[in-house]
Write a structure and sequence with these properties.
The chain is about 40% helix and about 20% strand. It has about 375 residues and is of the alpha+beta class. A hairpin with a 4-residue loop joins strand 10 and strand 11. Helix 10 crosses helix 11 and helix 12 runs antiparallel to helix 13. It starts with 8 loop residues before the first strand and ends with a helix.
Length: about 375
């Protein structure tokens, strides 16, 4: 609620964004299983088409594993400059409908359309108009979730994928959450979902049945979040002007890993995610941090700062991999890795000339 009014929030998520761009630009790839990334022992899938996902291929999966699951998988090298250009088109569409836009990545954002700029009477119509405009300008499809808070909107955007939208009203919110598996909840990764299952918690209804004390005993500082979302509550606002002090991305593996190549592939994928954000927002940092969570939930970080900002994707990849390699050989299996860039700084004039993104902006 805002000033007595129910919020109208849309979560827009492009459908298989990187892979869809490749299939759009190369019609010969349409209808085929496509992975954006590089094949080989050190390769990792950055994105997968829906045809590839049918085989269990998804982002952050090592390329060798992806090929085992889908032997006819077609690898396409990433073209981040193209993805960033398309992302700018998409976010320009968002700006026509709301001043309250919170980007989450190149292809995903929250919009608060309680007072939409187009004057459309409903959030449903606004989401439909946004998706139509994105398709008209980019040839790509998007899905949308519409609700009264961010948690519900994000889950709803996945409910009619691809190329669909779904709305969760205040009247249906709490009951709808109870029907969902907790594994679909934002903030509940595979390991947490498995732990909840061992505790007899498999659906939103099961989660709602637990007391706050019970959740605190088993989930610590996350207890309040789980308690709230089980009741379809989320008070977070769409923050368009928040100042970011860091940019990070992390992934929880499908299984606990000991293979160094697979762990490095996960770190490499997260570094790619972070670099995409840095380029789009023109925010560059001097400190790189790698987060590691082991199978027993012990968590460690390794950081490195340098005198100047990280200037290229390759520099970030190199720093991230050096940091994770500092814990090898690992005595325990690893369940999660993350990469963060922080300590943002203005880019000195001489260093700007070395950044490809600045050269592109200046028309060089």
């Amino acid at each position: 609620m805002v000033d007595g009014h129910i919020r109208k929030i849309i979560h827009v998520d492009m459908d298989a964004f990187f892979a869809s761009v490749e299939q759009r630009d190369n019609p010969a790839l349409r209808g085929l299983p496509v992975a954006v990334g590089h094949a080989g022992a050190r390769g990792v899938v950055a994105a997968a088409s829906y045809e590839a996902r049918d085989y269990g291929v998804k982002s952050a999966l090592p390329s060798v594993t992806a090929l085992r699951r889908c032997p006819n998988l077609i690898f396409v090298p990433p073209r981040f400059d193209v993805y960033q250009q398309v992302s700018r088109q998409i976010h320009a569409v968002f700006a026509r409908y709301s001043d309250l836009v919170q980007p989450l990545s190149l292809d995903e954002a929250y919009l608060d359309v309680t007072d939409n700029k187009a004057g459309l009477p409903t959030a449903w119509m606004t989401a439909k108009a946004i998706r139509a405009e994105i398709f008209r300008e980019t040839g790509l499809t998007a899905s949308a979730g519409i609700s009264y808070n961010k948690f519900l909107a994000k889950i709803a955007s996945d409910h009619r994928k691809p190329n669909g939208q779904f709305a969760v009203t205040p009247e249906m919110g709490p009951a709808w959450v109870e029907t969902l598996p907790v594994a679909r909840f934002y903030g509940v990764g595979p390991v947490t979902a498995a732990k909840m299952k061992r505790l007899g918690i498999e659906t939103g209804a099961d989660l709602r049945a637990q007391s706050l004390d019970f959740l605190r005993r088993h989930f610590g500082s996350s207890a309040e979040w789980y308690y709230g979302i089980a009741r379809a509550r989320d008070g977070r606002s769409v923050s368009a002007d928040r100042v970011r002090k860091s940019s990070g991305s992390e992934t929880t593996f499908d299984r606990d890993l000991t293979d160094e190549g697979e762990i490095e592939a996960g770190v490499s994928s997260m570094a790619d995610d972070v670099w995409g954000w840095c380029e789009r927002r023109q925010a560059f940092g001097r400190t790189v941090t790698v987060k590691i969570k082991y199978a027993d939930f012990q968590q460690i970080t390794r950081s490195r700062s340098q005198p100047t900002v990280v200037m290229t994707r390759e520099d970030l990849q190199r720093a991230s991999l050096d940091l994770v390699r500092s814990v090898f050989p690992s005595q325990k299996a690893i369940r999660l890795v993350g990469v963060t860039v922080s300590n943002f700084a203005d880019v000195p004039e001489l260093q700007r000339e070395e950044l490809p993104i600045f050269a592109a902006v200046m028309g060089a």
